[in-house]
Amino acid sequence: MKEIILLKCGEIALKGLNRSGFEDRLVKNAKRKLAPLGDFNVWKAQSTIYVEPKDETADLDEAVDALQKVFGIVRLTRACVAEKDFADISARSVEYLAKIMPEKRTFKVEAKRSDKRFPMDSPQICRELGGVLLEAYPHLKVKVDDPDITVNVEIRERAAYIHGEQLPGAGGMPVGTSGRALLMLSGGIDSPVAGYMMAKRGLDIAALHFQSPPYTGERAWLKVKALTEKLCVYCGRIDLFSAGFTEIQEEIKRRCPEELFTVIMRRMMMRVAMPLAEKEECGAIVTGESLAQVASQTLPAIACTDDVSDIPVFRPLIGMDKQEIIAIAQKIDTFDTSVLPYEDCCTVFTPRHPRTHPTIAMVEDAERALDIPALLARCEITHERIKL
Ligand code: ATP
Ligand code: MG
Questions:
Q1: Ligand 1 site-directed mutation target among 182, 183, 189, 190, most atoms within 8 Å of CB
Q2: What's the pLDDT tens digit per position in 6-50?
Q3: Which DSSP state fits 71?
């Protein structure tokens, strides 16, 4: 029996004239996701996206699992394909539903006929197929309001489809439909979650990681790459950049008051990120900051960081508790990698008593000791494209 997957788009339906562009993007993202799993035809028709295996070798369970991680899909439905012939539809329905019907007590049939050449109209299909199913499963009763199962039949252009199990999709918007953003990606728990959340709103994610060799080692970098790979499951391919941060950190340590080290470091991170964001056509920066989580994430400290950014800084975790963030990290499978104990550049020079209420005037004054343009000019950035 031939089975396909129907994808129902969510908020995309709201996008009026842009809708087609959103759906095209979703088709592209779905195709890319399915490519390693076999040969599939993917096409859209009447606000549904169809995923059809081209041959028997494609594993539909695997495909469903992969598609459940594609943003922009609210619901996935498996369906069996029948000829546009009532006898075939009946036979296939009985066979296809054999697994689930024994555990149901009430049902109804809903039919949609978009191919008006089909000789029966929708009420007729419902009535007749209802009769066929009652005969095949005599324990069932028809119930119009709130039945245990609604059997959907669609008579479409290419074939008839009988819907089976419905599964939840990842929701959100297709990655790439909201533009592109640069994620400041540490090896910690928070920033991968922040990247995931913004990808869910349709942003294509590029990532920037700061390394400070020899204070940070190769294993810390490999950990960041592993996290980026995990993010690719949801974000698609990711351009991962690494900036050498050693000299900048050493200079801040040498020349600025210790209590302002972290906030000045964050401002320097922003200054490195800004031209890269421009070059990469990223319209925003994303960080994993959460209000009051640590000294550099108080309101005054965040204001000092934002002060040097001239594009929006998105902080999707700002109002979340650590436990809530961890729950998402576990769901997206980044948690176990994030907690591996390798040094991050942020922890290398952490001041003993960081100032929680810095002012912009105070940090600007302290930064006068640094030759910022020269430091930025010497900061080297490398690039790798990460994909699954
Ligand atoms: P995380 O778990 O994401 O590391 P955190 O709670 O440990 O967050 P900080 O280490 O103070 O907080 O970092 C705050 C944010 O700054 C991070 O979420 C991340 O966006 C950015 N950041 C920190 N360290 C780095 C780094 N080495 N490279 C790139 N961005 C970083
Ligand atoms: Mg950190």
A1: 190
A2: 999 876 555 666 778 889 999 999 999 999 999 999 998 877 899
A3: T
**CA distance linking residue 311 with residue 163, whole number of Å:** 46
Residue identifier of the C-alpha nearest atom 20 of ligand 1: 287
Q: What is the mean pLDDT of residues 226-251?
A: 97
Cβ count near 106 (within 10 Å): 15
What residue type is 55 in one-letter code? Answer: D
Q: Residue 272's closest CA among 211, 324, 360? A: 211
Phi, psi torsion values for 255, nearest 5 degrees: -110, -15
The pair of three-digit structure tokens given for residue 74, joined into one six-digit string: 């609210």
**What pLDDT is stored for residue 17 in this prediction?**
60
Residues contacting ligand 1 via CB (< 6 Å): 184-186, 188-191, 208-210, 287-289, 293-294, 296, 344-346
CA distances from 176 to 29, 193, 209, 297 (A): 9, 18, 21, 29
User: ω before 214 within 30° of 0 (cis)?
Assistant: yes
Using the mean position of ligand 1's atoms as its centre, give its distance from the Cα of residue 185 in Å.
6
Whole-prediction pTM: 0.91
Closest ligand to C-alpha of residue 188 is: 1
Give the whole-angstrom CA distance, residue 119 versus residue 358. Answer: 76
- Tell me 57's DSSP state: T
Three-state DSSP class for residue 93? helix
